[in-house]
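Lab notebook, bench 4. The sequencing result for the construct came back, and we need a structural model before the next group meeting so we can plan mutations. Quick request posted to the team channel:

Model the 3D structure of this chain.
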Amino acid sequence: MKFEVLSDGSKIGGRKILGIALFEDFTKEDIGVVPSSLAALALMSIPRENFKAKKDKMLTIPLADGEVRQIVLYGLGKRDEASLDGYRKAAYAITRQAAVRGADTVAMAIPGASDRAVSRCVGESAALACYRFEKYHKPDPDDVFAALSDIDVLCGNLDGLEEGWIIGEGQCYARDLANEPGNVINPEVLENRARALASERGLSVSVIHADELKKRGMNALLAVGSGSAVSPRLIHVTYEPKDASGSIAVVGKGLTFDSGGLSLKPADSMLTMKGDKTGACVALGAIKAVSELRLPIKMHVIIGAAENMPGGSAYRPDDVIRAYNGKTIEVNNTDAEGRLTLADALAYTCEQKPDAIIDIATLTGACAVALGETTAGLFSNDDRLADDVLRASAASGEPFWRLPMSDENLREKLKSPIADLVNTGGRYGGAITAAMFLENFVEKGIPWCHLDIAATDFVKTPYSYYIKGASAFGIRTIIAYAIRAARSADAA
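Done. Here's the predicted structure in token form:
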């Protein structure tokens, strides 16, 4: 993608689509950067079409003559309620409109685009607007969808635009991985994709396979993958720049398919379970973007990769498993497998001594019941880390809500009569008891944050800048947190 920042609209040239974002109280001066002839056409059409620039409302104005073939107006709503996500949505709508019309070039005027953070949102949206997962579709000769090659932003910030594109591309990379079905991406292939990314980005990678998992006592991860023909593995990718002044670790759940194991899911519930690896995909997309941004911070990505299948060697309800940190787990339900893979992965991650750990997982349906399909759950043992991640969430437009871990009555539900823990705490408060379970595998003194994206990882009905399919929800929050952590460590 080639971005160009224009000081005024006289250089728009052959751009086929011109997008203009407006607040409800817009004035002529607000679109003063737009060529006067095009601005006049827009201002003439606004009262005729009764366009009020209400939030998320859009008006398209076709033009018969000239190089610009269409003006797209997008409403930002009230000026005093402006948000970064509002700019992100505006840029997405404009860019997507250009893509679906087959235009490979677009120009846009976004208020405040000279601000680096606003332009970063524009860059992110440009990448997301060009995304489709069409690998398995027969080409449609009437489909004119085009990935854009050039975007001009009036009075934009080039650094922000290019940073945003890298972040958006990281999300698209994660979406591509998550959208792949289980017959394409299994634990072995996920390892190969991680190795390919590491080779491309100059990252280090190490993989612990089944024999070594057994020697080390990573029996929780081994148990989850025991029913599959493809053995589980722990994947560790590291980005370590020479100027690194801090470290973070991102732990991703990598269930390439989840049948529920012997506690078999109903048929309908298995649909979208190819996406049970989304946490791992997000983690890989995040380290891709962080390395391309050249952030001065060390990042570990650690993935417990397995396939949960009901084979003859599968683990069973009532089994007792000794995890990597020595704690024993009574298995109540083999469909509560994600927390078992994360248990060993988290204990291993603590040995790397990062400054903070963020795990991200499609963990519980209970979180979806609690928060709905567009907000994800956040749990943490550290208020400062939780606040920092929530600030990153607000900037990224990915809503997370912190849920409590203080209810000792819920914690009691994890007690087993024959082991240290059971792997399920029952129906009520299920997202919270799952997080409480994970906390047992985090070393005291290490700040840890758990992100439950089970409700948000797969989009059934398109909304905002999300099309149907894998969303890679959470990746922009993690990258925003990494940017913040890098700056804080550098300042210190």
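The domain at 2-154 is CATH 3.40.220.10 (Leucine Aminopeptidase, subunit E; domain 1).
Will bring this to the meeting.
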